[in-house]
Amino acid sequence: MNPVFNQNINIQFPNNVSLTIKREDLIHPFVSGNKFRKLKYNLLQAKAENKDTLLTFGGAFSNHIAAVAYAGKEQGLKTIGIIRGDELFDKIEENPTLKFAQENGMKFEFVSREEYRLKSETSFIEKLKNKFGDFYLVPEGGTNELAVKGCEEILTDEDSVFNYVCCAVGTGGTISGLINSALPNQKILGFPALKGDFLTDEIRIFAQKDNWNLISDYHFGGYGKINLELIEFINAFFEENKVPLDPIYTGKMVFGVIDLISKNYFPTNSKILLIHTGGLQGIDGMNIKLKQKKLPILKTND
To answer: With a threshold of 0.90, does the pTM exceed it?
Structure first.
């Protein structure tokens, strides 16, 4: 685990609003950001149960799949990834995420999108146990009670100066941990990467307070969707601040926060902390898609 630090964003905002980003993306070279936090206690639990195999779920460019593969190898555990989309079976070599996971020992089972929707069904899990034997199940995106416990460790004493803490939301685990560990004077704002309002119920399963709000205006059309405006924003932010942002989660959240500042959403003198949840491994895959669409690629280094 590498030390995480808070980096000031040197942009002059109206009303004396200040912006700081917590560089959780630097916590580990391959298990970055919230994936490190979510897996921490799940890996300990797997070992406590004497399990030697992790099984989990994800899509073609899943940060979670890449993280579980590497973390499993690092901890001496076998890993199995149930991958959404049976058409990906013969495309591993051209998919940076799946190639990385395979190189780190993960075995794949490719299933149709219809079958993938059954991933929480007991009968589907039993079928997997019959095929692969005993395993420790890590949910899609990694969110469970142990994941939330890990995410409760993101905020530290030095973060008590912030009025607002903002993060992207996928499965709801990260924001739940932030909600539970926030101080009474802090408001947690979540920026969903997916369309739909089902996340509120998911978060309420784990969150113990009401100090939070979801802002659903910045998903750019839905999960994995991206346009020229977002690409140009992410690249300009990198040029100015030397902070790479992923286009699925953190990039959209940062775009949203800065847009809200320009619309005077935040009171005067607000101190805002942005949580960088990592996800940078997916940029290689996204850039392949952007080249195919003849759009500019995302920058992650000078």
So the answer is: yes
